[in-house]
Write a structure and sequence with these properties.
The protein is an all-alpha fold. Among the domains are: 99 residues, Ankyrin repeat-containing domain (Serine Threonine Protein Phosphatase 5, Tetratricopeptide repeat, Alpha Horseshoe), CATH 1.25.40.20; 123 residues, Serine Threonine Protein Phosphatase 5, Tetratricopeptide repeat; 198 residues, Alpha Horseshoe (Serine Threonine Protein Phosphatase 5, Tetratricopeptide repeat); 55 residues, no CATH class. It has 51 helices and two strands. Helix 8 runs parallel beside helix 10, helix 21 runs antiparallel to helix 22 and helix 41 runs parallel beside helix 43.
């Protein structure tokens, strides 16, 4: 008895047997063809059960021999009318699979013995092998990877078994799915006696598999020294043979750090030194690869045999890679063999830069001892030196080492940034101290007031980032407190604008005259600076008669600001229900003091509307935004930027509700006004145009949507440079292209965005995973279900880790996986997937959400298919999926005594 994925086989035979309203049909010729394919689907290690797991509904339990016999009978006995009507598969086999199992139990034993036969051969047990043959195992069978009995025997260790198999007239050069012969298998597993046996039989020693690997390739790759010797001594296997990617056996030995094999092959390979200096995988030479991985002994061997110590790939030398990866002893050897310590990449990155950036202090010392240029500047990031990199990463001891070795403490990049700027900004107090104390030479002394191209000082950096101790130290050492940037921002302003209350307090204590703080925006920034308890800072009543103090005090509400912040934190954690409680409480308190029409009150009301939207309560959110919009029109005016922003949000909410015409009308009104009032390049203007494109796409106006998206993208890229918003716009462009059916174009853009997000945000960032999710959607639309399912599963695994199992995006991915399974007609898998995620989605989205309703409809559809085909999702099928075939037989035998199994 065999388990057969019928859909897979019929598709491979290119039969068009799926009709509009019917599921599966057979014609008179199909049984014989299926019977032949069944034989080819024999597998060991329960691979057949794995086949069933992929598509359990339309998998049929059949017997190859019986099916072929049925075909022979059909020529005389099958009614012609039945053939023409193409009876369903379910009517050609027994409706009772338990009876079917009993009927074909002998064939099931054959399958089991066949699996045991493969295992016996693999383990080199000839007696067990012959016992399996006596019990009905087929010596001509193949595994799911097209391994024959001879392949399994070659992995074993018994030439006698191989001799026996060959006596049964099996080909000794038969190939598996990878194009490998039994001789390949023997070489790969280091079976020297088997290799010698086949060679004596006259098998071609340089036979190629599908990857164009010879026996010597696979033996060298696995490090089987004795096998390599056998191959070289017998018929002299070609050492210079190259596989599909251009690698020789020597290359594989090197890449896998098989030193003995490497030595043997270098001795036997003509002009081996040339191979040692070739660019191979990843634009690396063998020496690059060995240095990068820290293979010390291998590095020595390569250098002794002619590898160029200063060989350059597209950019770096082996010394760069050894320094970057912290391989101290490899660095020593390379330098001893003449490596240039100041070797420079295309971007002028030296080995010292590499070692410093990764914090490899001992390697830094070695490079400096051998004369590395301590002040060499790269061209990657505005001419950073090693001292800049050490300051960025907080490597205090390396900073001290560099300074002792004559690093210029005040050295600046082309934008004027000094190591002191960097250390102050990143909060590295010890490095700041080391730089300030470095006064060996008056010309090399740190300029504490040094300014970059924007006139930013190190005190600005420390104040903005909230580093109090560093700020105090800089002021103590003479930093200019009132220094102004090109935008007239002082350190006090910088601290206030970034909510650094400790720095604000520090600077205000030092600055005795507050009359300079007359800009209302600066005062607001100071008032909104928050302490560790997130309470609003009360200022301006200190030391002078500030005219706006009393008014500002009235809007200072410590409890409210704390609640707002807590609500925002909860929103970031997707705990919207609890966030709503905080926002509503803050709203009531502020409304009591300021009134419902105050802009400050409306700010909190906007948060409430946003939470409603995030919860999927789109109509409730729309009502809230409309109320805010009306009040903003009255108190701020229709043309105020805040009013216009709310109008744009209303349009976006209408779009989400599917009310595209209303959304379009609002966008038509809002966009021109924002362009006129705020300018065409203002973020609010571009954001509204971005939303307009979404609406146009939903209306099927793809070209218009595409043009707007491209225009917005160009402006974002041109004005704001590498703004993350541009990635969102690119994704929208891809979405429009996908809706136009241009799936390849869309996929290309999504992949480009995904690549950039991995760099900018990280591979496991929620927005990066969102793009990977979109890539899976495209694969699904392309009917590339394997890629779609694999990609969705990868997204699901990471979202569970990053967001949690019950997060909306995690649940959405589970839902998409179920959809792919349904598209492949894997109904039981799809049913299981829908059932597993339904409760969580129902709880997260609510019973009336479209996704919840869609799941219910699809479950209903699947059950309809079960009923229509007569193949119901019985408990025994699910049980069969979880058990070994033998265990399943035991259950069948006891079936009559177990009434809990549904029939």
């Amino acid at each position: 008895m065999l388990v057969l994925d019928i859909m897979s086989i019929l598709d491979s035979l290119k039969h068009n047997l799926i009709k509009q309203n019917n599921v599966l049909f057979l014609d008179a010729n199909t049984p014989l063809l299926i019977g032949k394919c069944l034989r080819n689907h024999l597998a060991h290690d329960n691979a057949l059960v794995n086949v069933l797991l992929f598509d359990p509904l339309i998998a049929v339990v059949l017997n190859a021999k019986k099916l072929i016999e049925e075909n022979n009978k059909s020529k005389e006995q099958i009614d012609e009318k039945d053939i023409k009507s193409k009876e369903k598969v379910g009517e050609l086999i027994s409706d009772n699979s338990f009876n079917l199992t009993e009927k074909y139990s002998q064939d099931l034993d054959t399958i089991t013995n066949q699996e045991r036969m493969f295992a016996a051969l693999e383990e080199g047990k000839p007696n067990n092998f012959k016992d399996c043959l006596e019990k009905g195992a087929d010596i001509n069978a193949r595994s799911i990877n097209s391994w024959t009995t001879l392949h399994f025997a070659a992995k074993g260790s018994s030439p006698e078994v191989i001799e026996f198999i060959l006596d049964q007239n099996l080909s000794d050069n038969v190939k598996d799915i990878n194009g490998q012969s039994p001789l390949h298998i023997a070489a790969e597993h280091g079976r020297n006696n088997i290799v010698e046996f086949f060679i004596k039989k006259g098998l071609y020693i340089d036979d190629l598999d599908n990857s164009r690997k010879t026996l010597l390739h696979v033996a060298a790759q696995k490090g089987h020294k004795d096998t390599v010797v056998v191959l070289l001594n017998n018929n002299k296997a070609h050492t210079i043979a190259r596989d599909k990617i251009g690698l020789s056996p020597l290359h594989y030995a090197i890449m896998n750090n098989h030193i003995d094999v490497t030595k043997i092959l270098m001795e036997k390979t003509e002009n081996a030194y040339k191979m040692l200096n070739e660019i191979i995988i990843g634009n690396l030479t063998p020496l690059h690869a060995a240095a990068q991985r820290g293979y010390l002994e291998l590095v020595k061997v390569l250098l002794e045999n002619g590898a160029n110590v200063n060989v350059i790939n597209e950019d770096w030398t082996p010394l760069h890679l050894a320094a970057l990866n912290g391989h101290l002893e490899v660095v020593r050897v390379l330098i001893q063999k003449g490596a240039h310590v100041d070797a420079s990449s295309i971007n002028c990155f030296t080995p010292l830069h590499c070692a410093v950036e990764k914090g490899h202090e001992k390697i830094v010392n070695i490079l400096l001892e051998h004369g590395a240029d301590v002040n060499a500047a790269d061209k990657i990031t505005n001419n950073n030196t090693s001292l800049h990199y050490a300051a960025i990463n907080g490597y205090e001891e390396i900073v001290k080492t560099l300074l002792k070795n004559n690093a210029i403490a005040s050295i600046a990049t082309i934008t004027g940034v000094t190591p002191l700027h960097i250390a102050a900004q990143n909060g590295h107090l010890g490095i700041v101290v080391a730089l300030l104390d470095h006064d060996v030479d008056i010309h090399d002394k740190v300029d504490i007031c040094a300014k970059d191209q924007n006139n930013v000082t190190s005190l600005h950096c420390a104040a903005k980032s909230g580093h109090k101790e560093i700020s105090e130290l800089l002021i103590e050492r003479g930093a200019e407190i009132n220094a102004k940037t090109n935008n007239n921002v002082t350190p006090l302003h910088a601290a206030a604008l970034n909510g650094q209350i400790n720095i604000v307090n520090l600077l205000i204590k030092i600055v005795n005259d507050l009359n300079e703080i007359k800009d209302i925006d600066t005062v607001k920034a100071i008032m909104n600076a928050r302490n560790e308890e997130n309470k609003t800072l009360v200022v301006a009543a200190v030391h002078n008669n500030f005219s706006e103090v009393e008014q500002l005090k009235e809007v200072s509400q410590p409890g409210v600001s704390s609640q707002i912040n807590e609500g925002l934190v909860l929103c970031n954690q997707d705990d919207f229900q609890m966030a709503l409680i905080f926002f509503k409480s803050a709203y009531e308190k502020r409304k009591e003091i300021l009134g419902s029409d105050n802009p400050g009150t409306l700010d909190i009301q906007t948060y409430i509307g946003s939470v409603s939207y995030a919860q999927g309560a789109y109509q409730e959110a729309l009502n809230t935004f409309k109320e805010i919009f009306q009040k903003q029109k009255e108190i701020l005016g229709l043309n105020d930027k805040n009013t216009l922003r709310t109008g744009s949000t209303i349009a976006f909410t209408l779009y989400t509700l599917g009310r595209y015409k209303e959304a379009f009308n609002i966008c038509q009104e809002i966009c021109p006004k924002q362009k006129e009032i705020l300018g065409p390049n203002h973020l609010d203007t571009l954001d509204s145009q971005f939303r307009m494109a979404l609406v146009l796409d939903a209306q099927g106006k793809y070209e218009e949507a595409l043009n707007i998206n491209r225009t917005v993208f160009e402006e974002i890229e041109k004005i704001f440079k590498k703004n993350p918003t541009s990635l969102c716009i690119q994704e929208n462009i891809a979405m429009v292209l996908a809706n136009q059916g241009k799936l390849e174009e869309a996929l290309k853009i999504y992949k480009d965005v995904y690549k950039r997000k991995k760099v900018v945000l990280g591979i496991n960032h929620v927005r990066t995973l969102e793009t990977l999710h979109n890539i899976a959607v495209i694969h699904d639309k392309q009917k590339n279900y394997y890629e779609a399912l694999t990609t969705f599963q990868k997204v699901l695994d990471e979202r569970k880790k990053v967001l949690g199992e019950n997060h909306r995006e995690t649940l959405n991915t589970q839902y998409c996986i179920a959809n792919v399974l349904l598209s492949e007609f894997k109904l039981i898998d799809a049913l299981r997937a829908y059932t597993e995620c339904f409760e969580q989605i129902n709880a997260a989205f609510g019973p009336s959400h479209p996704t919840v309703l869609n799941i219910l409809n699809k479950i209903k559809y699947i059950n309809y298919i079960f009923k229509f085909t007569g193949l119901e999702p019985r408990d025994y099928i699910l049980l069969y999926l979880q058990k070994d075939i033998t265990t399943f037989n035991v259950i069948n035998e006891n079936n009559e005594n177990e009434n809990n199994v549904k029939m």
